[in-house]
Amino acid sequence: MAMISKDPVQACTATTLRQFDSSKKMAMALRKFGKDGISIWRRGFSSSAGLESSSTRDATPVNLFTAINQALHIALDTDPRSYVFGEDVSFGGVFRCTTGLAEQFGRQRVFNTPLCEQGIAGFAIGLAAMGNRAIAEIQFADYIFPAFDQLVNEAAKFRYRSGNEFNCGGLTIRSPYGAVGHGGHYHSQSPEAFFCHVPGLKVVIPRSPYQAKGLLLASIRDPNPVVFFEPKWLYRLAVEEVPDADYMLPLSQAEVVREGKDITLVGWGAQLSILEQACEDAEKEGISCELIDLRTLIPWDKETVEASVSKTGRLLVSHEAPVTGGFGAEISASIIERCFLRLEAPVARVCGLDTPFPLVYEPFYMPTKNKILDAIKSTVNY
Amino acid sequence: MRRSRTVTHAPDGEFGPDLAEVFGPRQSDGGPELVQLLTPEGERVRHPEFDREFSAEELRGFYRDMVLTRRIDTESTALQRHGELGIWAQLLGQEAAQIGSGRALRPQDFAFPTYREHGVAWCRGLDPLKLLGLFRGVDQGSWDAQEHHFGNYTIVIGAQTLHATGYAMGVQRDGAVGTGDPDRDAAVIAYFGDGASSQGDVNEAFIFAASYNAPVVFFCQNNQWAISEPIERQTRIPLYQRALGFGFPGVRVDGNDVMATYAVTQAALQRAREGSGPTFVEAYTYRMGAHTTTDDPTRYRLSDDVENWKLKDPIARLEAYLRRNGLVEDGFTDHVAAEAAELGERLRAGCKQLADPEPLSVFDHVYADLPPELAEQRDGYAAYLASFEGAQA
């Protein structure tokens, strides 16, 4: 199974060489990345098996919005043709992710936009199409829908419809997604599945501060348009050691966060921490769970999940978005194709209810640890 | 400058010359050109086109409405701070814009609010506890929109302006425009803010309204801020001037002047009811509070600005006028203050008594009828809840 190899620098560099353009800037970034050893610290938030510290570097315990802020600082610092913009980003943003950027890099490069998501996306595509890195923020994923046409019909198809003569690969859309306890109908949605249905886009979702910084930098530098959903619940809540340095984590590579042998659990974003709690409870009842963070939803790492399910024979997928038509359906279908004869039980999906995201009903709507635990047990006992 | 089409005079000739003519930009002596009938100091001023006489009863009514609306707002903000509401969108400073426009509505007119029009809700007869139910999250925003002719709060910025335009087109097709019957002719009012004016939906609503001559008043409360973004980020010209580009009149009114807001909105609504189509009313005001209770405006705006606008307070100027003209010598203001205190108490008590709904009702009203698959999901969930030790039957 795939894990972060013992030499994290090598693993990431190999992946980045596959993925990135060999432009001068990328080569510089890679050299810088290669020169600086990075250490993978034991994550306080989400444990990973089989990790080692390589050379010791400066790292600080920070929360998610600070990790993202660091990534944005580095992106702006390493590429003078990168821009950060969106509603309210100038004063630091409603979630503080863009704090200090306007002051440091100037308001030509970090700026507020008019209140228009379709405009933000279209504008970002244009900026990216001339070779810039356009890092656009949609204030809440719930508001991304006016931008959907631009992302689906334009961003995703730029390269394809031009025979690779033209692209907007420098486009990254960042947006907070997911439940936050009090977001209600319009500050809680998980729209990732809509974008996973669009060839030409990448969808990336980090589970923690360390993951977020590395995945965001990788997304910004990836030569394809990326939609990067940030779990807003974790902006302040999740704290872990994050290297101060510039580093990237590979896209389209899932991570086995916990090893086990009885059942494979797959999720992303904030749901990872819920799944982890369920793993721990299941362990007490003698069930050994293997937990995978998908990290990139499209193109997704089928090999890692397949390898895991080949070992365990059981799969459970969990996401906040409603179960019907959610991305869990794609994972289930693909894994059944690959692992049919190995499966001991149907693929379980523990997801949001098939209702709009509710108000005070939120705790009932959510795919909680107990619901997951129930499903683990019934799958194992099938 | 192209004139919009000539309108007939209002039935009672109250509004003087061609209304279309008067909505164009006017020269001012310094400040933003806007229609004003009551200065910040509480002096009555005349306006050549939009003036009207107000009875003592009307003015005292405005005062009471604004004081009570402000009380609803401050009480709800406090309730949020105490954890009784999940969030509250404050309207502090915008009372005149909402009461002035809200009171100009006839019962058959329909209002489409954003999420901040608690003053308009008040005018439409909505019990403020219904608003609290939404912000507390125990009630999915459901008051009967038809009963109050006041739509449900719309969180997605600007979306309601398209709804308002479609509704207005429906009113046209129902033959409730231009009949001359004051009880039948209806208009629609769409509320939105300065930030919303940048949204595609809002501009599309303008296009549709103009193209179909829809009986809709686009009422923009320009409170100068979209969270942290000042108005200058949204527009290069005064917002009301955009309307001309779309083909209908626009007028800017002092949004802190309840008399002017009432007069201008009434004129615009009458235009719509008569069949003369849409009007853009920009109520120039200021968001004295935060965007919502999750926002901290000290991070992006100067307190000097806020202090300056305190001098333009909508309630203070009306109170000054009423006192100066002997219209509240009967202890009226004390009476209103007592009423406000009572209202505050009722809201506090009522809020805490708002019941949590039954868990299984989360499945209600997704569709008109419950699809079998969803019924199955609900039954499965009911069984899951019942499986817990100590679960109630």
UniProtKB/TrEMBL annotation, chain A:
It is an enzyme of class 1 (oxidoreductase). Its cofactor is thiamine diphosphate. It is found in: Mitochondrion matrix. It catalyses: N(6)-[(R)-lipoyl]-L-lysyl-[protein] + 3-methyl-2-oxobutanoate + H(+) = N(6)-[(R)-S(8)-2-methylpropanoyldihydrolipoyl]-L-lysyl-[protein] + CO2. GO terms for molecular function: branched-chain 2-oxo acid dehydrogenase activity. CDD domains: TPP_PYR_E1-PDHc-beta_like. The keyword Transferase does not apply. Keywords: Mitochondrion, Oxidoreductase, Transit peptide. One of its GO terms (biological process) is branched-chain amino acid catabolic process. InterPro entries: THDP-binding, Transketo_C/PFOR_II, Transketolase-like_Pyr-bd, Transketolase_C. SMART domains: Transket_pyr. GO terms for cellular component: mitochondrial matrix. Gene3D superfamilies: 3.40.50.920, 3.40.50.970. Heterotetramer of alpha and beta chains. This is 3-methyl-2-oxobutanoate dehydrogenase (2-methylpropanoyl-transferring). It comes from Rhynchospora breviuscula.
From TrEMBL, chain B:
Residues 64-340 form the Dehydrogenase E1 component domain. Pfam families: E1_dh (PF00676). Residues 1-31 are annotated as: Disordered. One of its GO terms (biological process) is branched-chain amino acid catabolic process. Keywords: Oxidoreductase. SUPFAM superfamilies: Thiamin diphosphate-binding fold (THDP-binding). InterPro entries: Alpha-ketoacid_DH_E1_comp, DH_E1, PdhA/BkdA, THDP-binding. GO terms for molecular function: oxidoreductase activity, acting on the aldehyde or oxo group of donors, disulfide as acceptor. PANTHER family: 2-OXOISOVALERATE DEHYDROGENASE SUBUNIT ALPHA, MITOCHONDRIAL (PTHR43380:SF1). This is Dehydrogenase E1 component domain-containing protein. It comes from Rhynchospora breviuscula.
